[in-house]
Amino acid sequence: MGLSLRNGDYVPDGTGGLRRTEGREALLEQVLFRLTARRGTFPFLPELGSRLWQLGQLPAARRQSAAEQYVAEALAAEPGLTVEQVILTESGGGRAQVTVGLTWQGEALSVTVEVS
């Protein structure tokens, strides 16, 4: 069980507290956080986050394999989670989407993050 995050902020529950998540929803929020947080920006947790933000600095021919590597690094600490597929879709102007297909407890899940 964890606290719900939206756009980096905790989500209020409408009664003065904070919304809690569990199970699949909590896992997906954790995955999104790990993929969007910049790896190395948390001094006491240097392995937290991903390097997806660095994709635009690489030659186009290397971006797909780098996206796969960066996603695997970011999600390695999530128990019971398997990365099945990483799809990089570039939209120009240094922007891209990374869609990640996952398996957790036998269930297929998918998340998409914007990268710039």
In short:
The chain is built from 2 helices and 7 strands; from the N terminus they run ββββααβββ.
Set out the fold topology.
Layout: E1 2-3, E2 5-6, E3 9-10, E4 20-21, H1 23-36, H2 60-75, E5 81-92, E6 95-104, E7 107-115
Protein name: Phage GP46 family protein
Strand order of the largest sheet: 5-6-7
Oligomeric assembly:
single chain
Structural class: alpha+beta
Please summarize the sheet with the most strands: 3 strands, antiparallel
Query: Could you list the spans in which at least 5 consecutive residues all have pLDDT below 50?
Result: none
Question: What does the overall shape look like?
Answer: globular
How much helicity do the residues have?
25-40%
C-alpha-based Rg, rounded: 15 Å
Termini separation: 30 Å
Residues in β-strands, percent: 25-35%
User: What would the average pLDDT be, to the nearest integer?
Assistant: 86
Number of domains: 1
Order of helices and strands: EEEEHHEEE
Kindly state the number of beta strands.
7
**CATH architecture type:** Roll
Report the top-level CATH class.
Answer: Alpha Beta
Number of helices: 2
Here the CATH topology equals: Nuclear Transport Factor 2, Chain: A
